[in-house]
Amino acid sequence: ILFVDIDHVELYNDTYGHQTGDDTLATVARCISENIRRPGDSAARYGGEEFVIVLPHTDAAGALAVAEAIRKAVARLGIEHAPAALGHVTVSIGAATWQGQVADTVASVIRAADEALYSAKAGGRNKTFGTILV
């Protein structure tokens, strides 16, 4: 599972307005969809500016590769975000890979992905961070 969060979205909305923010959410959603290619992979909006991506039968290295591809693709969009450190819209991504033993519920995997996302944000944003539940 990947959790994708648009960095500094509140500042973006305050600067450019909520309609532009909604348009940017849609653009990021399309970018995410373009970067998940396998038939079983799926993405959905998960709260305000967050997205969840389910990558069945994907190991940790594969999940982080998809996360990095998405992070870089969003940055390449070049959507202006003047108040942000890099001057354009970026995302932070947390990944959790479940190998079926310790994590016995979907909720524990979601919690691990959410914690990984916050680690990516704490690491400076525009980052990916992964964790493995064995």
- Tell me the overall shape: globular
Rg, nearest Å: 14 Å
* Overall pLDDT level: 92
**What series of H and E elements makes up the topology?**
EHHEEHEHE
Strand order, sheet with most strands: 2-3-1-4-5
Low-confidence stretches: none
How far do the termini sit from each other?
A: 14 Å
Residue share in helix: 40-55%
Overall strand count: 5
What do we call the CATH topology? Alpha-Beta Plaits
What's the architecture in CATH terms? 2-Layer Sandwich
How many H/I helical runs? 4
The secondary structure category is alpha+beta
Q: Which sheet architecture does the biggest sheet show?
A: 5 strands, mixed
Name the quaternary structure: single chain
CATH top level is: Alpha Beta
Task: Describe the structure concisely for a colleague.
The protein has 134 residues and is of the alpha+beta class.
Structure description:
With 134 residues, the chain is an alpha+beta fold. It is built from four helices and five strands, in the order E-H-H-E-E-H-E-H-E. Strands 2-3-1-4-5 form a five-stranded mixed sheet. Helix 4 (106-122) links the parallel strand 4 and strand 5. The chain is globular.
Can you give keywords for this protein?
134 residues, alpha+beta, Alpha-Beta Plaits, 5-stranded mixed sheet, 4 helices
Topology record:
Elements: E1 2-6, H1 9-16, H2 18-34, E2 42-45, E3 50-54, H3 60-77, E4 91-98, H4 106-122, E5 128-133
Helix pairs in contact: 1-2
